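Continuing the batch. This is chain 6 of the set; chains 1 through 5 are on the previous pages. Same settings as before, nothing changed between runs. Recording input and output for traceability.
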Amino acid sequence: MKTFEVLPSEFSEYVAWLSENNYLNEARFVEIFVRSKFNQKGWGRTKINYELRKRGISASLLASAWDGIDDQDYIDKARALLQKKRDEIKTGTSPQRYQKCYNYGLSKGYESSLVRELLKPLFA
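Output for chain 6:
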């Protein structure tokens, strides 16, 4: 608002207008954040939830944020990321490559149980 030379006494007026017209909407922000980080960056629930908690988002909004993401799509995205990582690793023994893939899945924010389950058939 300082960029547009708005007087400090008028800040509350502008903020109220932005809220009324759905420009300042925390639920909308959370929905877009979850969708974009999942679809574009391939982040998992753990990482996305952590980033949202860092921004002070309430637990109730966090719980409802994942309604827009289908569980099967979530699993398919994790599987594709892990397969791609497995194919990229050219050196090391099978247990070393497994560990690198496992760490990669965790770093992307996927749950450890899901990563282990998806890696079993890839390294069988």
